[in-house]
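A common beginner's mistake is to predict each chain separately and then try to dock the pieces by hand. The better habit, illustrated here, is to supply every component at once so that their relative placement is modeled jointly.
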Amino acid sequence: MTDKDGKDHLLEALHIVKIFGTLRANDDVSLFVRPGEIHALLGENGAGKSTLVKIIYGALQPTSGELRWQGEPVTIGSPAQARKLGIGMVFQHFSLFEALTVAENIALALPGAFDIAALSQRIRTISRDYGLPLEPSATVGDLSVGERQRIEIIRCLLQEPKLLIMDEPTAVLTPQEADQLFLVLERLAKEGCSILYISHRLEEVKRLCQSATILRQGKVVACVDPRKETAASLARLMVGSDIHVVHPKAKPRSGPARLVLDKLSLAQDGPFGVGLRDISLSVAGGEVVAIAGVAGNGQSEFFDAISGEKPLARNEALLIDGKPCGRLSITARRRMGAAFVPEERLGHGAVPAFRLSENVILTRYASDKDLTRSGTIGRDAAANVAERVIKSYDVRKGKPDPEARALSGGNLQKFVVGRELDRNPAVLVVNQPTWGVDAGAAATIRQALIDLARAGSAVLVISQDLDEIFEIADRIAVISRGQLSEAYPASELTREKIGLLMAGEHEMREERHAARA
Amino acid sequence: MDVWFAVFLTIVTAATPLLLAATGELVVERSGVLNLGVEGMMVMGAVAGFGAAFLSGNPYLGVIAAIFAGMAMALLFGFLTLSLVTNQVATGLSLTLLGLGLSGLLGESFVGEPGVRLPKWLGIDMLIPLSFILTAVVAFVLFRTKAGLIIRAVGDSHSSAHALGYRVIWVRYGCVLFGGACAGLAGGYLSLVYTPQWVENMTAGRGWIALALVVFASWLPWRVAIGAYLFGAISILSFVVQTRGWSIPPQFLNSLPYLGTILALVVISASRRLTRGNAPASLGQPFVPDR
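With all components supplied together, the output reads:
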């Protein structure tokens, strides 16, 4: 099998179809990867990228279609078989065991006997060779996300793969960590290892990849050289239309501070939790403040502390519209006009087996008077609210008022954000507002957040997506190991500066301050 | 001296069934499965062991029957919880009720019959050294071999183990069957060594103590051995108290193993060093592979 350049293909996926129930996740998808190239697989969430690579890695079986490896037709029945062929994969959600050590985690992926001492030596060698520092005897639960990714990469490298699949590897990294990763990937490609690189970050694809296959709604829409495209043209191919640009920001009106955090601290909860230390921040009515940071640096604890899921020791550590409420419950804070959207939408933001209207009642029964009448539920009123949210945020569903779990992730996200926006809260705190939402809907949500702020509310957004943060935020603060940096005006910050803050620059500075004092 | 040796011997006899059953359950829980049916598997082992030895006259056949009875119960549990993905807690509880009822029915004609005692080897019951060998083997396999690493991995994160290509369900079936064999053997010890006769409900809550023991030992084999002897000593204590005429209610002494477990849980959860790495993270969670 040769292509027009006369080069052999390492991997060919021909006419792959994968059907889940009624959904055609992959619909006649073909993909060709040459030896030693970095090949991008682009597409929005739900376009079928993950399904396709899981088929290549043997974790899923195609409904129909053929795989060819070095020209030979193959059936890849399991990940073990894929690894035997020379296919390695670094998952977006790591397949690691938190209670085991680095070396034990790696041993699990390798065939053959179990010799921790010899393996630790090999891990040290390879981690030095590639500049991926890692201690074999460390317990995974204690490691940062970046370090965990290194385990996955080294685990693949030890098997000397011919094809390495990377599923959105930079989603969890600081810009600096991402740069380091690119160097490793470029070096691997030079050594002859092909890389299948899944991403929806167009700039890094343009920088890193020699070719790109673009998927949309389960179908291949184009196969291009990303270096010859612009980010806009790639985005158009991914989405199928021009993306609605968020309305240029009107100047934030500087109103009074509506949400104030004053030296907020929270003890570490459990061995893998993060404690919060002396966090101070003030969000005025009229502005959007964003909290950037790499996952696992205390974002969930920060959210829980503000929402009231974890009550604070000091009542004055948190003020909503000037009233101290650090020790009040979530419901009491909601009555004061605050609204909260947690990161995990199914299970945390919505009860999976409850209808959407019932989920409306759960967060709004205290603040909306007509949802409950002397203790009984106002079903009609709830249904009206649900209907209004569904209409305004274009929530797509199979039947009227479905159970929350029947919605796709992106549609449920639109619903849980819309449910709170619909209240016109005085203070809105959102964790990962557009996680897993397609570009069009993400733009709608971001616009709604800005509009809410401009109407006089205080909006606090926690996000790991720097593009999103720059799009909506008036001021940006960075959280790193449970400490929050100063909130800088967005115009004064660059990606590099944020990267340094993510790596904990402000902590060091504060420590120097402390040393001087 | 002789008195102390006798006391020691009674402690050993009381501790051995706990050690056998708890070591089996430890492996089951390390693989991420919570089988609350230990009592049911034990009592089935006891009745099957007694019955086979009584009917054939061969106590060794009794031991084998006890092991297989425990495994049969475990297989039922495995089929329900692993293949049909029923709730592990509810299924385990029903398994105990089923075992208690079924053993009473099967053993009705054995009540009052003289049992066959398992012969001693070199003056000691062979199941006693066997229980220690079992603990040593389990400790070695769990922490020094690839098979043990896979069991711990499956118990820590079944989805990760699946993503790496391990057959989570089959690993768990193996562990559940091993746990059943151990519980059955522990039951056989009761009806072939401890009191060689059949009495309905003769396990008398030892399966529950074994379950508590696994938590008490924070999922470590050698701590299970220590705990088994500690709990064994406590259960002997109530006899001593009665014979001496001390006025401590026996109910209080009988509840000591459970109080000890609660205390151990409190101590464990208060200390980061003890919690870490021991409690299997996916304990009791059902696993359905996406295909």
